[in-house]
Amino acid sequence: MTQYFVEKPKLNVTVIDGKIDDIEKGRPNPDAIIVETFDATFGAIHVADGRLHLDGFALTDLMTWLYREQPATFKAFCKRTYKLFPNSSDISDLLRATALVVTGKEHEANGEDAHFCAKVREAHPIEFAELRAAWQRQFD
User: Fold this and answer.
1) Which of 9, 10, 65, 84 could make an SS bond with 23 (beta carbons 3.0 to 4.6 A apart)?
2) How many other β-carbons are positioned within 10 Å of the β-carbon of residue 91?
3) CA-to-CA distance for 102 and 89, rounded, in angstroms?
């Protein structure tokens, strides 16, 4: 178990086995690794350059937590999500690929988007299969 404190949104993030286990607002835990902000990655969760890099699966956890804490319109929710990732060069590609994988629409992706979808899915194949199945059940 590793705990991180992300300064900009003032969040404590607990990571176990490469997956987010818990997110809480507040002051830093004394044992936490302190980072400045979040960033997006197609690799595993890691810290680099003072940022906690989150993968597609971790992004689904963060977005779920954010929506539960502050329900909003779609536009406002998207703004809040992007605000958590200042200066992230990969956040748009990661969000798009993650959404396509979760909704089972990755077959509609072309070029780089298809490549990004494959990277997102391959990082957590079981978890994304479960998310896809849950998504599909909503429409059956």
Assistant:
1) 65
2) 20
3) 22
Closest C-alpha to 61, from 29, 5, 102, 30: 102
Amino acid letter, residue 50: G
Residues in the chain: 140
Q: At what angle do helices 125-137 and 111-123 cross, to 10 degrees?
A: 110
Q: Which two tokens stand for residue 85?
A: 């990732």
Place of tokens 């990655």: 41
Token digits of residue 65: 């937590």
What sign has the CA pseudo-torsion 130, 9, 66, 22? positive
Q: Please, how many CA atoms are within 13 Å of residue 11, restricted to the half-sphere of its CB? A: 18
> Is the per-residue pLDDT at 16 higher than 90?
yes
Tokens 């494959």 belong to 118
If residue 38 lies in a helix (H) or strand (E), which one and from where to where? strand 37-40
Summarised one tens digit per residue, pLDDT across range 89-134 is: 999 999 999 999 999 999 999 999 999 999 999 999 999 999 999 9
Instruction: Say if residues 70 and 76 touch (Cβ distance below 8 Å).
Output: no
The pLDDT of residue 72 is above 80: yes
